Amino acid sequence: MKFLTTFQTADFLDTLVSLAVAFVLATLIGAERQYRQRTAGLRTNVLVAVGAAAFVDLAMHLAGADGGVRVIAYVVSGIGFLGAGVIMKQGMDVRGLNTAATLWASAAVGSCAGADMVAQAVALTVFVLAGNTLLRPLVNAINRIPLDEKTSEATYYFKLAVTPHALTAMRDRLVEQLEAASYPVADVDVVEIGDGQIEIVATLVPTAVDPNELNAVALDLQKQSGVRHATWEVSTTD
């Protein structure tokens, strides 16, 4: 068996240290994710980090630093497919971006461990944990700041509830008035909302708006025959 002739205790211990470092550091990252009940929790982060460490360590032993660099490049691109699996779009909300980014960082921690850069792996782990914990209060504070429509670029939806006989005319008028106010329309959807009413939803091209201008359009449209209600809303989650 080649194993008996190629096995070297020093190399094996080096690999063991790399895998152990990846395991311990990814456990710290994954525990925080598991505590917050994220899609990719403790085991997923550990497996990603240990797997990355194993591939990089193997390449380092077989082809030296050049081999390690090549494998790291594949890890960086390959982990993107795994991250894409935890990103979900629900209506106007996109969920899982932070979880995917954490998996990517766990792979980086594992790669550092596999390349015997233990200090760098520890430092990266500290920064990942800080990003997921220490920055949370700052994120919450920013999210509580009232949205300034004039300076925030977001996606705006103008909704018009109309009777069926007014649908065609009001759909065209809605687009015309919005574009006349310098707010181009990206898409128009028609939704049945019951009680003999239909809702026209115009999605504006993402931009900053003047609330007074959109309110003026809404007030003017509400005066038209067949219009039951006119309003607009904003989404910053896409």
Strand content: 15-25%
- Shape summary: elongated
Number of strands: 6
Largest sheet: 4 strands, antiparallel
| Percent helix | 55-70%
Mean of residue pLDDT? 85
Query: What's the SSE pattern?
Result: HHHEEHHHEHEEHE
Q: Quaternary arrangement of the chains shown? A: single chain
Unreliable segments of 5+ consecutive residues: none
Structural class call reads: alpha+beta
Strand arrangement within the widest β-sheet reads: 4-5-3-6
Gap between N and C termini: 57 Å
How many separate domains make up the residues?
A: 2
Counting H and I runs of at least 4 residues, what is the number of helices? 8
Structure write-up:
The protein is an alpha+beta fold and 238 residues long. It has two domains: 2-143, no CATH class; 155-235, 2-Layer Sandwich (Alpha-Beta Plaits), CATH 3.30.70. The protein is 60% helix and 17% strand. It contains eight helices and six strands; from the N terminus they run H-H-H-E-E-H-H-H-E-H-E-E-H-E. The protein has helices spanning 2-6, 9-35, 42-84, 97-114, 118-133, 136-143, 167-180, 211-222, and strands at residues 88-90, 93-95, 155-162, 185-194, 197-204, 227-235. The strands form two sheets. The protein has a four-stranded antiparallel beta sheet, with helices on one face. A two-stranded antiparallel ribbon has the order 1-2. A hairpin with a 2-residue loop joins strand 1 and strand 2. Helix 2 (9-35) packs antiparallel against helix 4, helix 3 (42-84) crosses helix 4 (97-114) and helix 4 packs antiparallel against helix 5 (118-133). It is elongated, with a radius of gyration of 27 Å. The mean pLDDT is 85.
